[in-house]
Amino acid sequence: MTQPALTTLSDDEVLFRDSVYEFADRDIRPLVRQMDDEAKVPRDLIDRLFDLGVMSIEIPDEFGGGGATFFHSVLAVEAVSRVDPSIGVLVDVHNTLVINALLRWANDQQHRAYLPQLAQKSVGAYALSEAGSGSDAFALATRGVERGDRYVLNGRKLWITNGNEADLFIVFATVNPDAGYRGITAFLVERGASGFTIGKKEDKLGIRASSTCELIFEDCAIARDAVLGEAGKGYKVAIETLNEGRIGIGAQMLGIAQGALDHAVRYTKERKQFGSTIASFQGVQFQLARAATELEAARLLVYNAARLRDARKPFLQEAAMCKLFASEVAERVTSLAVNLFGGNGFVKDYPVEKLFRDAKIGQIYEGTSNLQLQTIAKQLLA
Ligand SMILES: Cc1cc2nc3c(=O)[nH]c(=O)nc-3n(C[C@H](O)[C@H](O)[C@H](O)COP(=O)(O)OP(=O)(O)OC[C@H]3O[C@@H](n4cnc5c(N)ncnc54)[C@H](O)[C@@H]3O)c2cc1C
Which ligand 1 atom is nearest residue 206's CA? Predict the structure, then answer.
């Protein structure tokens, strides 16, 4: 049987992707500049994302979700990020990290308690990083201590996406620091839990509308059954969800690069110098052609990793490669778009300087580029 191309989408996938993009183009695009300036996402827009179904893509039908695939999440993150990568990462963390972790690791009672809310109105956040543990994530210091029928959390998390909007947080803490990574445990913590506060919100270079916050736990008491998976197995929850999550970041980077290329094509066909459109110059055409080629290569890597994941085949190396490459392509294509806009590329009245700033985060979060290279090299040399 001949296999379809990686980029060949089913009718359902085309319909889904196009409806998400149409929404982003119509409802998100007019707000992009304001959200970037104010570093804030209006709650009303988040509500409309829930109504559209992009906040419950893989949640089974019985819990009010779309019952779709991981690949659909990748298509949604790409389509939204083409317009605004801040909303792209909000959708991405909610779906590919939080819901994904719950689908895999939560028990029946947790599924019943949280999946309907996450499908309807509650945003999720994923809290692993701390001031002293970024790339070395399992050096985390937040403690979870058993006290009677409760766990008491103490510590601080840093850089937590959706910190301002989220109602449910997956929080990684150690229940036994002497056991190293085998003490790490994932906890489900609700906004409003006593002893849990949201700290400083970061003022960032890019994806400014996406909230990135410190989380503070001071004798935060939560029920024993708030453990996600098993106590001491949180490292598995973290590794496995992040392996998948970084495909989502690859998709965010694809969206950014596609958005920048769309703008560059449109602008170069309009802007005239030396009596012709700048797109008529071969020097510009070749730059656009190279960008389109790199974008296609990045898309193949991202779609391949996502399809392998849905087919339950190994995808660790492919996920690392897709994030590594797509984030580099996003940086190059957005930089080219700034160049092709000339002076207009450098000012906020035009959209490409923002995409250039937004692209940078792809090489940092969910494992820096060096950490992706480390994963790839480990597989290569095993
Ligand atoms: C906007 C934003 C959103 C984020 N969202 C979240 C979130 O939702 N949840 C969450 O838990 N975290 C989140 N993070 C944290 C993010 O995952 C970390 O910033 C990232 O993992 C890097 O950690 P670090 O900042 O401590 O850098 P460091 O680990 O200190 O790295 C600094 C530099 O050293 C390099 N380096 C480190 N170790 C090695 C090594 N062994 N070999 C070679 N080079 C190395 C790195 O590649 C990097 O270039 C977010 C960060 C940002 C900026």
Answer: 1
